[in-house]
Amino acid sequence: MIVAGFGFRQSATADSLADALARSGGGADALATPADLAEAPAFRALARRLRLPCRPVEPAALTAQATSTQSSASRASRGTGSVAEAAALAAAGPGARLLSPRVISADGCATCALAEGASG
């Protein structure tokens, strides 16, 4: 199972998220983001467009993940170096591994990372 994890600003559109996913390599089986962003219109629109399930990730699960990239903004706001990487790893389940570190959409409004795990 490959999970695409996302971090994004309120101004992000579904196209912002799709661009970040494409830049990460795409090919996900599920989408993940922090629980408080899971109902954001852009995230839901992308999930509908791709016909993929959404996996909301609770704050404690985000902060429990070791990320390969470090953003001071992510660290300050979410307690993790990369929201996208942490969401992907947490949603992919125990023992998940990062396939693609976070990449940033062309408009700078979204990040995406891919993780692989056995969780289904």
Strand order of the largest sheet: 3-2-1-5-4
Order of helices and strands: EHEHEHHHEE
| Overall SS class | alpha/beta
Beta content comes to 25-35%
In the predicted model, the low-confidence regions spanning at least 5 consecutive residues are none
Description of the molecule:
- This protein is of the alpha/beta class and 120 residues long.
- It contains five helices and five strands.
- The chain has a five-stranded mixed beta sheet with strand order 3-2-1-5-4.
- The longest helix is centred in the N-terminal third of the chain and has 11 residues.
- It is globular.
- The model has no long low-confidence stretch (mean pLDDT 95).
Q: What's the topology here?
A:
Elements: E1 2-8, H1 14-24, E2 30-34, H2 41-50, E3 54-57, H3 59-63, H4 72-78, H5 83-92, E4 97-104, E5 110-116
Parallel strand pairs: 1-2, 2-3
Antiparallel strand pairs: 1-5, 4-5
Helix pairs in contact: 1-2
